[in-house]
Protein: UTP--glucose-1-phosphate uridylyltransferase
Amino acid sequence: AQNGCVIAYKFKGKRFDCGGAEGYIDATNFCFENYYKTGKAY
Structure:
């Protein structure tokens, strides 16, 4: 960032770090709780 430009994007929603098992499991559980159980659309 000191020698170049930084590109950022602001978004609504929740972000998960799926680079490891814990983040992937958190994302899977979030989808299950918020979409499959409630029937909401993405």
In short: The mean pLDDT is 86.
